[in-house]
Specification:
The protein is built from twelve helices and seven strands. By secondary structure, the protein is α/β, with parallel strands linked by helices. It has a single domain, classed as Rossmann fold (3-Layer(aba) Sandwich). A seven-stranded mixed beta sheet has the order 3-2-1-4-5-7-6, with helices on both faces. Helix 3 crosses helix 4 and helix 9 packs across helix 12.
């Protein structure tokens, strides 16, 4: 297929996902206004001008995603990679679970876990119903619904934001001999590991996560297609189970806004420890207030709507200073749509 047609197909695909995400949130929002309205004053209204900027940033993300694929940073098939089997199987469950999410939010039940879920041995900060979801990150259904929920939240752009780590990662690893080792810290359902494997099939991939259910989901996803399976370990990122200087590159996607400040620094220190001298550490996470002041109302609403107890501190935290205090140097920072990136080198 000619590149112009491929680009048009991708743009149409993204527009479809954007329309679906917007429609889903609009319809459920109107239903919530009737059956479980949010307390007055808990959230701020988003100005129309801000929504226009948001749409512009989303279009810019789609364009840079296409440009990277067209330049050969990653295969163009990745642009159309979507877990359709999970969508058709679990989208009804997303809708069905929504009233319980509203109820949990209204009652401020932030540490609500079923009797069949073991919470023993996990740090207190992790035992939260992040996003007000049932059983937090320890539930089986949570692992099945997460990727779909995040795609809806970001109007179909979550994978495009994840893919922004691939260009700096590929740029660093391409000149290395053998099978460079890469660690994904808080690998979740394995979406980022799958993208790295599709882009850099000669890498030796590793992933750690605190959730056993998410690791099972990651193994399920990564087993569906040919390729070497990443080594997945159930572990806390505060104490990574690897030797010092073991990895050529370390990455982390959407983790740090869900960590308390002191834990944020501990995890960065650990990532520094396990990264080789000359290696890189790449972070993808939420934008911060310093980046787009116009988005401040959304950043204020986010922790309230989705129960993100550590987000407000993260939104003003100096992550570059944290990286440098751990020993990283030459920290490059960039932004795409609702995400922010740090590429840090270990001397």
């Amino acid at each position: 297929m000619p590149d112009t047609l491929t680009k048009l197909a991708y743009q149409t695909f993204q527009q479809g996902k954007q329309a679906f995400g917007y429609t889903h949130k609009t319809l459920l929002g109107r239903i919530r206004e009737v059956v479980s309205p949010v307390e007055p004053g808990r959230t701020s209204e988003i100005p129309t001008a801000t929504l226009a900027i948001l749409k512009q940033r989303l279009d810019e993300l789609t364009e840079v995603d296409w440009q990277d694929a067209d330049a050969g940073v990653y295969p163009k098939q990745l642009l159309f990679d979507n877990p359709w089997d999970d969508f058709f199987k679990y989208y009804p469950a997303v809708v069905w679970d929504t009233p319980s999410v509203w109820d949990r939010s209204k009652k401020k039940q932030y540490q609500d876990f079923g009797t069949d879920v073991s919470t023993e041995g996990y740090p207190d900060y992790y035992l939260q119903n992040f996003h007000h979801q049932t059983d937090g990150y320890l539930g089986e259904m949570s692992a099945h619904l997460y990727d779909l929920q995040v795609e809806i939240l970001f109007n179909g752009s979550a994978d495009a934001m994840r893919r922004r780590i691939l260009a700096p990662l590929k740029g660093h690893l391409d000149h290395l001999p053998g099978f460079p080792k890469v660690l994904d810290v808080a690998c979740g359902t394995g979406r980022t590991l799958k993208m790295i494997r599709d882009t850099l099939p000669q890498t030796s991939l590793h992933g750690v996560d605190l959730s056993p259910t998410y690791l099972r989901k990651a193994n399920e996803l990564l087993s569906k297609e040919p390729g070497t399976l990443p080594q997945l370990i159930h572990a806390n990122a505060e104490s990574l189970p690897y030797l010092e200087g073991y990895f050529d590159a370390t990455v982390s996607v959407f983790l740090f806004h869900e960590l308390p400040a002191e834990v944020r620094q501990t995890v960065i220190n650990e990532c520094y420890r396990v990264t080789k001298p000359g290696g890189v550490f790449i972070i993808c996470d939420s934008i911060q207030k310093v980046d787009t002041p116009e988005f401040a109302p959304m950043m204020e609403n986010f922790p309230t709507i989705f129960h993100e107890p550590y987000y407000r501190h993260y939104s003003t935290d100096d992550m570059t200073a944290r990286l440098e205090s751990a020993g990283f140097r030459d920290v490059a920072v960039s932004n795409h749509f609702m995400s922010k990136y740090w590429v840090a080198k270990k001397a």
